[in-house]
UniProtKB/TrEMBL annotation:
SUPFAM superfamilies: NAD(P)-binding Rossmann-fold domains (SSF51735). Belongs to the short-chain dehydrogenases/reductases (SDR) family. Gene3D superfamilies: NAD(P)-binding Rossmann-like Domain. This is Oxidoreductase. It comes from Actinomadura yumaensis. InterPro entries: NAD(P)-bd_dom_sf, Sc_DH/Rdtase_CS, SDR_fam. It comes from the Bacteria. Keywords: Oxidoreductase.
């Protein structure tokens, strides 16, 4: 008889404690649902609680862009879960601008804080516990757009590129401690944030001389669904991915074959 361990539909993450930033909607909420379905205990974090926080998850209000927000989250996770085995850095995004010179210092800093430094700060607070336990799984959420950086989003793509590089380095540093670190890079995915950003992008593109907007051709014929990304995260934090670290999984329906 064949026994399938850790297969989909099993409670492969039973006993694991997970923290998901940006877990109130979109990709983050789908990740929260997948981890709950796999048996993990989950804390979702965002700046405000909404009706879309998945049932069964605990919720913490925090702004990940600040050191204080990271400290709030780490303390809450310790108090509610007693530690974190699975950390998914999903909160992210940025507003488009009319070219690189139109991106202010404040916007650059904000993009770096949200899309890069938030992960660095929270990892620094939660990795010591993982090192002590000699186990842990970290997933950083980047973007497939890093592969074709466009003018309105240079602050965003540069911050995500930094995140990818940091994620690879962290994976090498933590591998001897049994901690795996990977990145997922979604292509265009149907979420509230994704749709709003693409609308803003079209408006900005219409005001620019050059047309920076991409007409995405997705070989698989549709935009991504939050679960397309969440299934990959569920796999990466499971025992099925126990020999996988330092990788960036590009989930884009085939849009960026060079990735
Ligand atoms: N959707 C796409 O097409 C796409 C493509 C490539 C990459 N991505 C990446 O995938 C991730 C999720 O994107 P999404 O489209 O699901 O976004 P979304 O629909 O805008 O959801 C973002 C989530 O993050 C939270 N959040 C935003 N800013 C935060 C902050 N400063 N502190 C704490 N929480 C914060 C939001 O809640 P609050 O607003 O209440 O804080 C919400 O829960 C992001 O990293 C994004 O860059 C998305």
């Amino acid at each position: 008889m064949t026994t399938i361990e850790n297969g989909p539909g099993t409670r492969e993450l039973a006993g694991k404690r997970a923290l998901v930033t940006g877990g109130s909607r979109g990709i983050g909420a789908a990740v929260v649902r997948q981890l709950l379905d796999a048996g993990a205990e989950v804390v979702a974090a965002a700046r405000s609680a909404t009706g879309t926080v998945p049932e069964g998850a605990a919720f913490v209000e925090a702004d990940v862009r600040t050191r204080a927000g990271a400290q709030t989250l780490a303390a809450a996770a310790q108090e509610m879960l007693g530690g974190v085995d699975i950390l998914v850095h999903n909160a992210g995004g940025a507003r488009p601008h009319e070219g690189s010179s139109a991106i202010s210092d404040e916007e650059w800093q904000d993009a770096l804080d949200l899309n890069y430094l938030a992960s660095v700060r929270l990892d620094a607070l939660l990795v010591p516990g993982m090192r002590e336990r000699r186990s842990g799984m970290i997933v950083h959420v980047s973007s497939a757009v890093v592969l074709t950086p466009v003018a309105p989003f240079l602050h965003y793509t540069a911050a995500k590129a930094a995140l990818e590089n940091y994620s690879r380095g962290l994976a090498l540093e933590l591998a001897p401690f049994g901690i795996r670190v990977n990145t997922v890079s979604p292509g265009r995915t149907a979420t509230p944030g994704g749709e709003a950003t693409r609308e803003q992008w079209a408006e900005v593109a219409a005001r620019m001389d050059a047309t920076p907007s991409r007409n995405a051709v997705v070989p698989l014929g549709r935009d991504g669904r939050p679960d397309d990304i969440a299934h990959a995260v569920r796999f990466l934090v499971s025992g099925r991915a126990s020999w996988l670290t330092g990788r960036n999984l590009i989930l884009d329906g085939g849009e960026f074959p060079m990735g």
